Amino acid sequence: VATAAGPAAAAGLWSEVNRCGQNGDFGRALKSVNKILQISKDDVTALQCKVVCLIQNGNFKEALGIINTHTKVLTSDIIAFEKAYCEYRLNRIESALKTIQSASQQTDKLKELYGQVLYRLERYDDCLAAYRDLIRNSQDEYEEERKTNLSAVVAAQSTWEKVVPEDLGLREATYELCYNSACALIGQGKLNEAMKKLQKAEELCRQSLSEDSDVTEEDIEAELAIIHGQMAYIMQLQGRTEDALQLYNQIIKLKPTDVGLLAVIANNIITINKDQNVFDSKKKVKLTNAEGVEHKLSKKQLQAIEFNKALLAMYTNQADQCRKLSASLQSQSPEHLLPVLIQAAQLCREKQHAKAVALLQDFADQHPANAAEIKLTMAQLKIAQGSVTKACMILRSIEELQHKPGMVSALVTMYSHEEDIDSAIEVFTQAIQWYQQFQARTNYGCCVFQPKSPVHLSLIREAANFKLKHGRKKEAISDLEELWKQNPKDVHTLAQLISAYSLVDPEKAKVLSKHLPSSDTMSLKVDVDALENSHGATYVRKKAGKLTGDNQQKEQGQGEVKKKKKKKKGKLPKNYDPKVTPDPERWLPMRERSYYRGRKKGKKKEQVGKGTQGSTTAGSSELDASRTASSPPTSPRPGSAAAVSATSNVIPPRHQKPAGAAATKKKQQQKKKKGAKGGW
What we know:
By secondary structure, the chain is mainly alpha-helical. It has helices at 2-23, 26-39, 44-56, 60-69, 76-89, 93-102, 108-120, 124-137, 143-160, 175-188, 191-210, 217-237, 241-253, 259-273, 278-284, 299-315, 319-332, 337-349, 353-366, 371-385, 388-396, 405-417, 421-443, 454-469, 473-486, 491-504, 506-513, 519-522, 528-532, 549-558, 641-646, 661-675.
């Protein structure tokens, strides 16, 4: 009875498992499978169904445990995909790759997973080939998803490997394809085109999600968060940091579930803040430490976040934390420049410049490929300390940059600042010799004359000018002769050469001056009238009118006789009286006239009486001795006595006031009183 009941019960349980699987109820299906395994613990189909149910419920670790404990029953040929998928979801990417490669038969499911594994391992070339093969050899409803993954691989190559993406000919009908295309354009630096693609992706996303009635506006905004994040990144690259910061903060307020997106946005905000708003940066750095971030981002993204953490520790004066982070980064990437530069910067903040230079020197000795960048930093530190000569020595030790015009210019400027003219000339000489040797190497020993490169000629000219400026005329002459030999028609160089020889060898200067072109050949075809009438000309010649008939005869008869200018009649005062003799001293200032007595002080005192208000002092005018007839004037008036007596009441023309002056003055006083405010 027991043996007969077992198969019957198992058949019912299998029916239950099938029904639950079709309905998507994998929890109930798992219970039925467990009952089947109680009846037959080594049933291969039951074990395989249990693994699938656990995967569907997200229990990847338990599913992998069952696979590993039943290896004899569940061989790699049967369960290879499920095992690799569990390892992939548990972020055991290398193990998943080995499982896929060890499978005897490469099914379409394994190929799909193989492409995902290669993408996570950042093996983009192999991943691209895998997806191309899948698209070519499969035809089902997942073709659009494969094309999306293919475009994602191309975008990753453009962003992280700086590979120019090829045109895949994909029709950007979905917002995912538009988004990936925009990322590829960002990798190429085509920011404006990328922004347009993102705007199109946003529009397509809204259209596709709004068609579903169950999707809310919050769900749409959450889906658009990654698109808006890329838009903000473009704004940041374009220097629109305020707009980028505003959009970043809007995304953070939405609280998206994607920890990778939050970490990237928080990192970008920290880079905008730099050494400012440190408190906000310390809050944002917590988002970069969320669980699972390391599995969502690429290696370069994670490395950039760690660099920014070290810099933030330096800005917040956490010296030990900064050293710890930079040392960890250096151990992970021994040849990377940034960790050692951060350590040197921290030492400089601690006023330990000598240790910083020693640290950089050790790194340069160990990694010669990166020595140039390190030595430039060392030179900058020496300049900051005031050791310009030592900085020049460091710069001259960078062999691959010695001949560069920028390096030559910097060294000459620094040596000139230190008044070391010999060293500056030596820098010019070495650079010119390098170009001569380079030209000899490119000619392969040929004796054919070859013109010098523009950079070479420019260095020779600058060297000649520098030597002339500092009185090294004989040395400058050899450079100028070399330039003139290269271009005998160069009048400017010939003029400089003659000028230099005139101070050293005048006879040679005379000989060379014969090579100068004549004044006729050097005359420029210039329209003088147009030049004089042009805007900004300091002198404009007046156009002479055409003379005809009598005017022309008069002009010829007069010749060069100058026209007499008519003198204007002088203006007389309005109250001028021709009968009155003018004051002969009228041209002198008032203070210098013979009859000036100075200003009369207290003019109105005589009108103020003493006593009660309103009373008058009797005989006040009679007591004034100046008003008596017997009192003689203090000084005689100019002219005869008869003239004085006859005109004693007449004011000279110079002192006469216009008739309407008093009236206008009264009117002005009345206007002032009307407009005044306040008062008694």
